[in-house]
Amino acid sequence: xxxxxxxxxxxxxxxxxxxxxxxxxELMARRRRDSAxxxxxxxIGLAVSLNVAQLFPERLLTGLPKVGDYIYATxxxxxxxxxxxxxxxxxxxxxxxxxxxxxLRLLAETLNMALIGTALGATGALVMCxxxxxxxxxxxxxxxxxxxxxxxxxxxxxxxxxxxFVYTFGIGPLAGVLALAIHTAGALGKLFSEVNENVxxxxxxxxxxxxxxxxxxxxYGVFPQVLPNFLSYTLLRFEINVRSSSILGFVGAGGIGxxxxxxxxxxxxxxxxxxxxxxxxxxxxxxxxxxxxxAMATGEEHML
Length: 304
Hints:
single chain, about 300 residues
């Protein structure tokens, strides 16, 4: 032990060791200072954000009961003794959903908007994703230009596109379809390109070695590898677009959202709950179906 202590004292007196310890203490002090500055800035930013958002406890406590009042007002006054009577009997399910044919037609229109918008957007994303993949193009201009174009497509919310197209083409589902397609192209294009950047290079080099063109490299070297992920992301986007298309109706883009905006504006409370319940059940059914389809698509990945 005495020898070890002597060796430690001896090492501690060496200039190199003293300089190392001094530098280590400086780094630790700098790290503590930087951490303190970061958390102070974070706390200030959070405080400013809470103030801007007016997220005050007393305001929340005052407003929350009104949420319950509104939800209670929208609930139907169902009566068990006449629950299955006709639409002219107050308290029956048929009375609550007296406008069911109209709701179903508008809901079908909403689903149609989401489906066509997703299909068009996925097609646009498929076209843009290959030149937007760093490992698949040599030109920096093409890569950067395609990336910026996709950013513009997805940076603007769908509802802003919908307002623009309602102004351009008039009220109706066309505006919703175009809004969903553009935003979907930008969002899916980014996801598709990131999938492309992780593909194995062997198949691409094989096609290139056989004299294939760039398009043939993408078709036979890349596409078979990424197809399951493309399908999975497209189905996920379809779910999102069903929800988004319900909101686009608020600005005149058609579908069930337009009817929902109408009944909310005129305080037709029971109709509000009827439509919201239909939308929730529809989205849930699509979520479950899409999850199964995505699992099937992912399972196929191992077979390719």
